[in-house]
Amino acid sequence: MRFISKSFTKKITLSLALALTTHGTPLFAYSLPANTEKPLNDENIQALQKISKGVSTVARYAEKAVVFVSVYKTVRGLPPGMIDPFEFFFGNPGNGGGPGHRGDPRQQPQQRREEGLGSGFIIDLDKGYIMTNNHVVQDADEIQLKLPNGETHEGKIVGRDPNTDVAIVQIKEKTFSKTGLSQLILGNSDDVNVGDFAVAVGAPYGLEASVSFGIISALGRGSLQITQMGNFIQTDAAINPGNSGGPLLNTSGQVVGMNTAIFSKSGGYNGIGFAVPSNIARRIAEQLISGGKVSRGYLGVGLQPIDSELQKSLNLPKDTNGGLVAKIVAGGPADKAGVEPGDVITSVNKQIVHNASDVTNAIGLMAPGTQTNITVIRNGKPRDVNVKVGEYPGENVAVKAKDIKKEDAPFGLALQKLTSEARERYNLSSNLGLLVVDVAEGGEAARVDIQPGDLIIAVNGKPVAEPSAFKSLVKQSGARVLLRIERAGQYFFVPLKNK
Questions:
Q1: Same domain? 412 vs 324
Q2: Same domain (yes/no): 334, 419
Q3: I need a labelling partner for 329 at 20 to 30 A (CA). Which of 26, 175, 253, 350 fits?
Q4: Per residue in 427-438, pLDDT tens?
Q5: Is 244 a residue of the active site?
């Protein structure tokens, strides 16, 4: 191998530079025409330049508050056929099959460490509060927050709400440097209009502080099966994996939405992205920070959208909008107030609702116990109904596994009898069983990934509907217990070691 000295390299470089020019004149055979044209500068160009500078200003302002979120999770082996939600969102590059692919279950390790990437933004710089998506931080063992000033700090979950996909994370270190950082203000998403300009900032595919520009494409996108509470803002500003949790801003630099999901067959940008409206995000964030949980209003109805055929069949006035009551939960707030199947809810608290999602959001964002008025159309005529809003069932678990004596919580399971409300909430098909309301960390049930919301139908082939019966059947069992479980309409068996 031959080596060339640095001084010799410098001489060659200087010689090449001199050879290319003589008295500043290029020696190439061809050169481009000289630029003698004046730059375009009419009124239309000036307008474009102002828009460009405006977007640049908003982007520079927002970048000081946008956080790059890295999350890590130790995943236990799951029952055959079950898919880990963390893997669904972030994938598992090591398994060779992408999200949802688990390979040969006999070759799966008992535990493995997974990493996911997302975005977030500072909403209170003084206290270190950062807003992001629930699906970004859900079940994470470790959260790393890379701030815009280049510092990285460990984060902790203040609270999270799967129903709206909103989570609040806080920087653990109270004395972190605030130099070069700022916080973003949540604007009023009710003031957003279709066609408004929008700026999205985040870390798509891990590319930090990426900015995209577009418009608000649509409002009130509900029934997307993204979360239980919807009415998302739709935008064509480019959103890709990794943008989740980042801000969607208006031209004043205010956050009008939090980027949450995309519609894509390929997994990449297709021009259809969805953001949680800032008004919903603010309400949830304030509750999470205040108490770590969300108390959500509940009406106890099942709603469906109204089409032209239903309008005619129900003898509704022309252009009637709202939510058609298809189901009444017995004993629920609507049932007690006299709401009936076939009623069409057209307003809540004197505010017009345009679809079933509007009804869900209007009630869901009310505090339980609120007295409100709803307008329904019944037999073609409007009538007002006063209703006392209930609390969404299952929001606050009444019992925790860690608070129960070990002998009363076999396998670290806190169980309750199945109710109609819980059946509705967890989308269960079975009529009998025991609902898992909590799972103790480190217990046998946690090892096999039994989760809150699962329904235990049978123990060793025997149906079970009472916690006392479950305890008795477990005591009568040998070294192993076989549970039959339903999870949102899917059924499977789980073997447990009976210590």
A1: no
A2: no
A3: 350
A4: 788 889 999 888
A5: yes
